[in-house]
Specification:
The protein is α+β, with helices and mostly antiparallel strands. It has one domain: RutC-like (60s Ribosomal Protein L30, Chain: A), CATH 3.30.1330. The protein has two helices and eight strands; from the N terminus they run E-E-E-E-E-H-E-H-E-E. It has helices at 50-68, 89-99; strands spanning 2-3, 6-8, 24-27, 30-33, 36-37, 76-83, 106-111, 121-128. Strands 1, 2, 3, 4, 5, 6, 7 and 8 form an eight-stranded mixed sheet that branches. The longest helix has 19 residues, at 50-68. It starts with a strand and ends in a 7-residue tail after the last strand.
Length: 135
């Protein structure tokens, strides 16, 4: 739905929003995503396997949201990673590095007291819309 220069994204391959928010908003050549969890879109449950599995699924979900808006992980310029336990940072970081190779986006990582549904990790992003071009 397009409202005043912004469009709410519908991503059929990503889990549905669990509250009154859009999975992503596309506006003026950018996509702003909501935080994504490591929830399997088919079951609505966390992907089993701990922080690594949740991070991997969250990034797949993020990729699906970006794709629905005409972007991709290659076009992400900034992420924010929220973790319930920074003691697991290296595990999250190893999986994150599998998805962002080459020149990764800018990133902030913070520990929070709790995440929705008891998640271990939540990841949001800002990406440009379009195709990757070599300079």
């Amino acid at each position: 739905m397009v409202i005043r220069g912004r469009e709410a994204l519908i991503a059929d391959k990503a889990p549905k929003a669990i509250g009154p928010y859009s999975l992503g908003i596309r506006t003026r050549g950018l996509i702003f995503t909501s935080g994504t969890l490591g929830v399997d879109p088919k079951t609505g449950e966390f992907t089993p396997g701990g922080i690594e599995a949740e991070t991997r699924q969250a990034l797949h979900n993020l990729a699906n949201i970006l794709e629905a808006g005409g972007s991709s992980l290659d076009l992400v310029v900034k992420t924010t990673v929220f973790m319930s336990d920074l003691g697991e940072f290296s595990k999250m970081n190893d999986v994150y590095a599998e998805f962002f190779t080459g020149e990764p986006p800018a990133r902030s990582t913070v520990q929070v007291a709790a995440l929705p549904k008891g998640a271990a990790v939540e990841i949001e992003a800002v990406a440009v819309v379009g195709q990757v071009h070599s300079d």
